[in-house]
Write a structure and sequence with these properties.
Layout (H helix, E strand, L loop, with lengths): L7 H10 L3 E5 L5 H10 L3 E5 L3 H8 L11 H10 L3 E4 L2 H6 L3 E4 L4 E2 L5 E2 L1 H13 L5 E4 L7 H10 L10 E4 L9 H8 L2 E5 L2 H14 L4 E3 L3 H32 L3 H8 L22 H6 L7 H27 L8 E5 L14 H11 L3 E5 L13 E2 L8 E6 L11 H6 L1 E8 L6 H6 L3 E4 L5 H4 L1
Parallel strand pairs: 1-2, 1-4, 2-3, 4-7, 7-8, 9-10, 11-12, 11-14, 12-13, 14-15, 15-16
Antiparallel strand pairs: 5-6, 8-9
Helix pairs in contact: 1-9, 2-4, 6-7, 10-13, 13-14
The structure holds nicotinamide-adenine-dinucleotide.
Nicotinamide-adenine-dinucleotide (NAD) binds next to helix 6.
């Protein structure tokens, strides 16, 4: 079907009749859920991935992405009825598809400059199979202007021009662990075409899958900026809370109490301070602006600096307390509780826990770690894997992930295995009174020293 040359109503009907072929490039944590949802809504979907294991798993009806409720069922059901398959043949997939969705990762290079090489490589493949009436969608998070200034010229290397085919940016607004729910409509889908017809076409396509509906924006660049700005908003506001929490320590007041009361006024939204910001979104997206524009972005740069400093600050809290107990960080045994950047999600990219491990090791500590989601894999980050019932002579615990399991630990038992009963809670989730009743000294990141007030 020539999607871009069809009317919105025709596109919506065609999904129901199974007349649309969609190629999804990148069958990762986000690409596979999108592919499975489009197939479930009636499209014939071919997922494209360079990883042959991923391709063969999907073709046997197996979901390999863990921790995504509903995904396994969707993959199995749609592979069985022949609506979902996978291939490593990127050009072949473009040749037989009407809609091509790009959802490969974007990274930063060693200078924090956006690395768009995977997106560029996929778009080159698509351009070799592009036909009149095709519609290309970028869903990968991109620096503003990438769709119009980078992707469009690559697609036009096909000899077709915009107008022969359409192109829109429709950013993925999902989080790991809730991808299906998010794709089906936790938030409206943002669509921005490089021309008006592309915006209309994208709107028709996502109306089929998103029950919250679609927000049309002026152009692809606006759509790119919406997604990147969402992440930057978080980074800057978290930095504000982190810095104010450090100020609270100097003032001798409780940061959480202060923030909560300030937030009773509707214009204040102070976040929870903590040991740092991780993941592939929030600490990354500011650079999609700071490294690509000429305007002053000093606030964004400073926020990155403040949030990156929180790992060091967390270690300093532990070090001060160890010194008060007559110990040195050098030679001490420190246990990191939780290595993932988010609670209950098995993801470690840019995790502050990894920075904390590195700082502790550089200061001569022996670093141990326990994360119920990672097990032995924590050793990749240089910490010694240690089950909680195996630890011995620990001098300080630093909690760096807010896993639910950590709220119900047996602190009496843990305390028996510690030399100094010091806990630094980098996520503010522990019950300080409970720990104190087990003889612990409990410290919170960001100047929240309840004990000094009592
Ligand atoms: N994971 C998240 O929580 C999340 C949330 C919102 C947005 N996003 C965005 O979604 C995009 C994809 O992220 P992800 O988490 O799904 O990535 P991922 O790392 O889980 O998966 C990427 C997949 O792409 C494949 N791939 C790499 N190069 C390829 C190529 N040239 N052709 C085909 N396949 C290729 C890889 O083999 C892998 O299977 C990123 O831009 C990210 O910013 C991710």
């Amino acid at each position: 079907m020539k999607v871009y040359h069809s009317k919105p109503g025709e596109i919506i009907d065609a999904f129901g009749k199974g007349d649309i072929c969609v190629a999804v490039y990148g069958l990762g944590k986000m690409g596979l859920p999108i592919a499975a949802v489009f197939a479930d809504k009636g499209a014939n979907v071919v997922g494209v991935d360079i990883d042959k294991n991923v391709v063969s798993k999907i073709n046997s009806g197996k979901n390999y992405v863990q921790g995504e409720p509903g995904l396994s069922k969707l993959v199995k059901r749609n592979v069985e009825v022949g609506r979902l398959s996978a291939t490593a043949d990127a050009i072949g997939a473009a040749k037989k598809s009407d809609v091509m969705i790009v959802i490969v990762p974007t990274f930063l290079d060693e200078h924090n400059k956006p690395d768009l090489s995977l997106v560029i490589s996929v778009c080159k493949d698509i351009s070799k199979g592009l036909k009149p009436g095709d519609f290309v969608i970028s869903e990968s998070t991109l620096p503003p202007k990438t769709t119009a200034d980078v992707i469009l010229p690559i697609l036009e290397q096909s000899d077709l021009k915009l107008g022969d085919f359409g192109l829109a940016h429709c950013p993925e607004r999902t989080s790991s662990g809730r991808a299906i729910k998010d794709i089906l409509g936790a938030y409206p889908k943002i669509v921005g075409g490089v021309d008006k017809k592309s915006t209309e076409t994208a709107k028709a396509i996502y109306t089929v899958i998103n029950k919250r509906g679609v927000i049309e924006v002026s152009d692809a660049t606006t759509a790119e900026a919406v997604k990147v700005f969402e992440g930057i908003y978080r980074d800057v506001n978290i930095a504000l809370s982190n810095q104010l929490a450090i100020v609270c320590k100097e003032l001798g007041i409780n940061a959480i109490e202060t923030f909560n009361i300030a937030n009773t006024q509707p214009y204040s939204h102070l976040h929870m301070p903590g040991c740092g910001v991780g993941g592939h979104c929030i600490p990354v997206y500011p650079y999609f602006i700071t490294k690509t524009v000429e305007s002053d972005t000093s606030l964004l740069n400073l926020s990155r600096k403040v949030n990156d400093y929180m790992a060091q600050y967390t270690v300093e809290i532990a070090e001060d307390e160890l010194n008060r107990a007559g110990c040195k960080l050098k030679g001490s045994n420190v246990l990191i509780l939780g290595v993932t950047y988010r609670g209950d999600v098995k993801e470690t990219r840019c995790s502050p826990a990894v920075s904390i491990i590195n700082i502790l090791k550089s200061k001569g500590s022996n670093v141990f770690s326990w994360d119920p989601l990672l097990k032995k894999e924590v050793e990749e980050f240089g910490a010694i894997y240690s089950r909680l019932n195996e630890i011995e002579d620990i001098d300080a615990i630093i909690l760096a992930s807010d896993h639910k399991e950590f709220k119900n630990l047996n602190w009496d038992e843990i305390g028996k295995r510690m030399r100094n009963k010091i806990v630094v809670d980098g996520r503010g989730i522990l019950d300080a009174d409970l720990l104190r009743s087990s003889g612990f000294k409990v410290l919170y990141v960001g100047g929240f020293f309840k004990e000094t007030q009592n």
